[in-house]
Flagellar hook-associated protein 1 (Pseudomonas benzenivorans), 673 residues
Amino acid sequence: MADLLNIGLSGLAANKTALSVTGHNITNVNTPGFSRQDTVQATRPPQFSGAGYIGSGTTLVDIRRSYSEFLSTQLRSSTALNSDVQAYKSQIEQLDSLLAGSTTGITPSLQKFFSSLQTAAEDPANIPARQLVLSEAEGLARRFNTVSERIGEQNSFINKQMTAVTDQINRLSTSIASLNNAIAVAASNGQQPNDLLDAREEAIRQLSTYVGVTVVPQDDSSLNLFVGSGQPLVVGATASRLEAVPGQGDPTRFEIDFVSGGSRQGITSLISGGELGGLIRYRAESLDPTLNALGRLALAVSDQVNTQLGQGLDLKGQVGSALFGDFNDPAQAALRVLAFSTNTSNVQPALNITNSSVLTTSDYRLEFDGTNYTARRLSDGATMTVAPPGPFTYPQTLTFADVAGRDQGFELVLGSAPAAGDRFLMQPTRRGAVSMTAVLDQADQLAFAAPVRSEAALQNVGNGTISQPDLIAAGASPIDSAAIAAALPQGLIYNGAGGFENPPGTPVAGLTRVPAGAFVPGQLNTYELDLGSGNRVSFTISGRPENGDTFTLAFNSNGVSDNRNALKLVDLQSKQTVGVDPSVTGIGTGASFTDGYGDLVERVGTLTAQARQDGEATGAILKQATDNRDALSGVNLDEEAANLIRFEQYYNASAQIIQVARSLFDTLINSFR
C-alpha cells in the first residue's frame, strides 16, 4: 500500500505542477516575448521484487521553454532591418513632399522669376515690369531660404531623435546586463530560469528596433551584445554606452560615440540597422546631398544672373548692379569651412566659389601634416590634387582638382599655417540656399541693354546691313564700361574688295572674320571685334555694301529700349549651367536651372519610392519571422484549455490511486481487529 500511495502522490505532484505551468501560460498570453512552457516527466527508478522490477511513479525533470535560437535571431535581424527602413522612409517622405510640392518646391518660383524677365524683356523701359522682376527675385530667394530651413529642421530633428534613441539603447543595454547577471546566478543550479530568459530576449528584441546588434552566447548562459564593427555594448553583467554628441567636423550634425570606461570611439559610420541606423543612413544618403544640391542651384542662379547683369547697361547707361547678394562675402566664405574640434590651432580659412557651374554636391575634408595638404571628396572618397605644392607662404590660396584634372569650382584661402594634424571640413554648397538674398531695390538699375550698338551710315549706297553686336567675351563682370567706351566708336569702311578699313587703306585693328576670309557679298558674314581688356563682340554684316559704305560700332549709352541683355537673362533658364563637366565640350555636359532642380526632385522621388517598396518587403519579412516565432513559442489558448482539462483528469486519477491505497490499508487494518 505504501508503494501505491507514493505512486499516487508522485502523480498528484506532477500534475499539480503541470496545471500551474498551464495556468502560467494562460495568464501570460499577452505578455510580450513570453515563450510557452511545458513540463517534462520521467518515471522514478523502479524497485526490484521477486517478480521483477516494479515502477515507483513519476517525477518532473524539467520545465521546458518552447524556444528556437534560429527563429529568435531571425526575428531580431528582421526587426532591426524593418526599423531601419521605416525610420528612413518616414523622413524621406517628408523631404519628397517638400521638394515636389506645387506650393513648397523651387520650380514654381523659378518659373515666375523667368516669366517676369520675359515680360520685362518685351518692354525694357517699362518700370512696373522691371519692378515685378525685383519682386519675383525676392520671392525666389525666400523660397530657397524656406526650403533650406525646412530641410535644416529635419537635421535638428534627427539630432534630437539620435539623442533619444541612444538613451533607450543605454537603458535596454543596462537592463540586459542585469538580466545576464540574474540568469547566470539562477542557472548555476543546473536549471534555466525561463521567465528571466524571456525577459532578456524581449529586451534584446526591443534593442534591435533601435540599433542592429550581434548576439554571442556564453557558457554561463549570459549573452554578449556587439554593435558597429564589433564594439561590445554588453559583456556579461557590464554594459557600455552610446552617446549622441556634436560632430567634430560639423557640430550641427550629431555623431555616435561608443563609450566604455574612460575610452571613447566614434562609430557613426559603423552603425547599421534599427531606427538609429535608418536615421544615419537617411542623413548621409538623402539629407546632406539634397542640402548641397539645393545650395549649388542657388549659387548657380545667383552667379549666372549677377554675371549676366554685370555685362549690360541699365536705364541710366551704367553697368548693371547685382540682383542677388555676393555669395563670396567674407562672412559667407568663412562659414563654408569648419575646423575640427580636435584642431590645436585657431586657423579659420575662407572658401570662395570660383566657378559655380562646375561645383559638385559633395563635401570635402582637408588635412595638414605639417608639410603638405591632402584633400578628399567625401561623396566618393576620391583624392583631390591640391595646388600649389609646398612649401607654402601665407596667406596662401589652395585650389582643388580631381585625378582627371577637373576643377572643383572653389578655392581655400588660409591666412596662416595650421598646426600639424589639423583637419577642416569644406562645404562649398551647404549654405548656398539658406544665405541667398535679393539685394537690388532700384528697378532702373536692372541692366537689360547691351553695352555696344551698331548702325549703318545713312549715306551708304549699297544695301549692306549690320546686326546688333553681341558681347561674347567680357574681360570681367561687371564689365569695365570706361574701357569699352574708350575703344569706341569704331567705324568699318568697306573697301569694295572684301575688307573693312579705317582710315581708308588701313585694316581695322582687332577685326576678324569667322571663319577667316574676305567678305562675301549677298551672304551672312560673321565678324568679331576685340575691344581690349578681354572684351570681344560678335556681329554679322550681310547684303551687298558698296565701296565706301560705313558701319559704326558705338557705346550704347542711351539704350533705353534695348533688350539684348534681358534676352540673355531669359535664356539662362534653359542654359546648361549646373554641374558642368569642364573636361567635356558640347551639348549635354550640364543641366539648366529647371533640369537641375528636376534631377534633385527625381532622385529624392526615386529614393522615396524605393523606401516604400523596402518598407513593404521588410514589413512582410518581419511579419513572417514573428509568425514563425509565435507558432513555436506563442501561447495557444485552445491548446492550454485542453491541457487544463487533461491535467485535471490526470490529477483526479492520481487522487483516486491514493483513495484505493487508503481503502486497501483500511481493509488490512480491519482484518486484524
